[in-house]
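Task: complex structure prediction.
Instruction: return structure tokens for all chains below.
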Amino acid sequence: MSASKLTKKLGSLIMTALLLGPAMAFADYSTLNMTESVSKIGQDMYDLHMLVFWICTVAGILVFGVIFWSIIFHRKSKGAKPAPFHENTTVEVIWTSIPLIILVAIAVPSTKTLLEYEDTTNSDLTIKATGWQWKWEYDYIDDKVGDSKGIHFFSSLSKDANEARQLGANKELPEHYLLDVDKRIVVPVGKKVRILTTAADVIHAWWVPELAIKRDAIPGFINESWFKAEKEGVYRGQCAELCGKDHGFMPIVVEVKSVEDYKQWASAEKGAAAQAAAAAAAASGKTYTMAELMAKGKEVYDANCLACHQAEGQGGGPFPALKASPVATTGPVSTHIDIITKGKGIMPPFGAQLSALDVAAVTTYERNAWGNNTGDVVQPSQVK
Amino acid sequence: MHEERKQANIKTTRKTLLIAVAMFGFGYALIPLYSVICDVFGLNGRFIDLQQTDKAEYIANVEKQVDTNRTIRVEFLTTLNKSLNWEFKAMQNTVDVHPGKVTEVMFYAKNLTGRKVIAQAVPSVSPGTANKYFSKMECFCFDQQTFEAGEARNMPLRFYVDPNLPKRIKTISLGYTFFDTDRKVASIK
Amino acid sequence: MSDHAPTGIKRWLFTTNHKDIGTLYLWFSFIMLLTGGAMAMVIRAELLYPGVQVVDPNFFNMMTTMHGLIMVFGAIMPAMVGLANWLIPMMIGAPDMALPRMNNWSFWILPGAAILLVAPMFIGGDFLAGQGPAFGWTFYEPLSGQYGNLAFFVFAVHLLGFSSIMGSINIIATILNMRAPGMTLMKMPMFVWTWLITAFLLIAVMPVLAGVVTMMLTDKYFGTSFFDAAGGGDPVMFQHIFWFFGHPEVYIMILPAFGVVSQIIPTFSRKKLFGYASMVYATAAIAFLSFIVWAHHMFTVGMPVAGELYFMYATVMIAVPTAVKVFNWTATMWKGALTFEIPMLWSIAFVFLFTIGGFTGLMLGLAPVDFQYHDTYFVVAHFHYVLVTGALFGIIAAFYYWVPKWTGNMYPPLLSKIHFWVSLVSVNVLFFPQHFVGLAGMPRRIPDYAVQFADWNYWSSIGGFVFGLSQILFLYIIIKTIKGGEKATDQVWESAEGLEWTVASPAPYHTFATPPEVK
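Output:
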């Protein structure tokens, strides 16, 4: 029973916190209000938020003021005598109507902003964002600005953040901790970008506060939403719908570039993709040494498998250990590869995300690391 | 007095219990009700486009109305549910069509596993309002698709966009997600 | 009129006495409050600093899930039913609940349901392995469908539903049929009115919840496809049915608390409740509106714009009857002769803090801004203001108000004052900063966060620890009051009105065997 371990941990943490105070005072206390947006519609939302905020503040001051007045001046200890009234139709009608009028006044700008937000027509660029447990997959579907059609990649939590976030890692937190990815999506400034969201497993939500866009990604269905960034820059967001264990660790980073830079990025990206495909084709025939595969395998493992199966392959909770597990030791290599490419239970399939070399390397790694020393060397040609 | 109360209590219990049972049924009734609402309002392209459009009806009503002054961009999106280890893509990402004109596009799928797989494609149209105006005459999503181990093939989609499509819509996105129909694979053990 | 009660464990197992059952409910809910609270402490400890220090993310998700489920179904709802059991018969001059034996069953189902709910956490004997539900208290499909021990959860919810439905039927029957002669509906105390309306909400929506978990069960184990897109279902459908239950559920938790403060504020203002009739109508209006606004929890799922507009308009309408209630409480205090006994302190805090929760509720109801608020800590702050400083504060106020009648003893004055002030300050340190981090972009249900949210999370955690500890003081106060203390008079409070104050303190085991005459 390890509940006592938890109690101990909690106790020491709370003690330290009380003694040291906010020892890690990273930020100032300026994060008080809604993120201001770099899109016009986002700014409309912000203004609406402030409008309602001020209405509530005024209403609050009035009501709380009356209560405080009563508390201070209508005390029995000050000799107050209770008044006999307990209803007044006129007053009641008035204070039912006032909120109603205020609501109508708020409803007008809300309706306007909502209609604008839901108008996805006349877009310049269409990107599909597919949620996976726990990363995003992007496809550039249609492009009237440059030539990005067909660009496709996965985007997951950056490597340094992924290492720092392991339980008990005790590493210094990198810059943009949890808000940085290994590969950003790039869009042009001042253009209407339509984001189509869907998911491959459970519901996720694609959210970038500064672009004022949040839309659920639902398996089997596509949803659409849009933004138009008026300013170049890097904008960061996160998945906003609980999607399982690593829900907090699948950030979104959008880089807004000038139209020229965007076009350049798109053609460079396509060139790189073609090269990678050629390299992968070449790799599938090549024979690698154990050392090469182990080095590559560790890299692949750390990026894709470590979050669940842990650094020493010991697993934890619903995630099985790989260390000394039959699958990664005595079982046939083909079953092992199958599980990696097709997934099993809550484990997603990695077939679409990893190249044959990656799969071969990580299989080799898992069969030989942490004392699993099977001596098996798996070549890319063994991976279909 | 006492007996009267007892009778009243039994009566109230019966009535309230009836409400509870009816509400349990209502929970289930929400499902067909939701479909009806989806049909009427075209909720995100769900449900209704699993129906095949009748060819005779097309010839009778739509064929003459082809609107060559208008061009609609249709985008195709393909997604594989994580239960399925396949390759799946549209042969073209986008196609430009005139409303009313029948267009055929091809999708390609390959079973990467070493076993026979039966899969179902689930279509979804965005924006949702376009759903009512997107008519399929032939689609691989009408039936479950059986792929032998390693089998690859092209699958056609024949469709037209209804000329009554609201004027402001210039782009329609059609997404397909393939799911494995074998629950033992799809569900989690 | 016999006044002897059976003794020992059998008394509690087989009791059909409304006061005994009320006590059982209240103790059960307090134990659940401490359990759910302990989980909240784990959550706040993990969020104290950025980085993952205490528990792994899966365990964290299990904590947020179980915390929500336990607080909603184990702490708040049973506490309200406990108050109803103790008070409704005494308030309407009835000898007991209408269906005493069913009353016993509806309570004793609860511990079984609670065990089923928490049992999966201990599978394999390793608590830290996180084998319990970890899909959020809203258990959205398809995430919840991935969960291996779903059947436990489903049956636990079924049992909770049975218990609530039986309890509600009993309350409705009691209120409709058991009132003393002369006690017309429009003479009933507000607490009775709010519970009557709540009970109708419960029998209307608990079956829907039972239905939706049954669909989940058959989807997972029996091949149906209600929520599975592959078989023609729709995961968004799940959310519609869930929130059809879920939104009225929120009012189920808050309406009885409205009733409680509507009893307490007039007593200590020495005035009648202002606008009794409009209070009744406002409660009914809130209950009605709660059925037609559910999809405001789902503005980001991609509804047609007409749907979004409708749900936005209907949602903000709730502000009207809610505002009427707040105005009525304010007018009750206006020109009264106020004193500030402990129950009054909690009630005034309720009015202030619940109103803050109401304001943020209005903000969340506006669809275009909700796109920014949705699923952030702003929402977490909102519903904790409504449910902790609203529903829970109402329950605590009720405890201090009626405990002299229940036990015959006054609460310890100084300790109770400390309990109130420490809770009041810490609960605001706990939840107010969550508005800030939510607006600044921190999603809810994450075990770790970007460093710009660090400072406010630190303060939120400190507030949480203090608020948690001050409820241990509450436990001490409860026990101390039961064991002894200054003897309470029968009237207890100078200007309290209502039949419950006409009986002796402590209330005898059987009251109103002969119905009183109400003029």
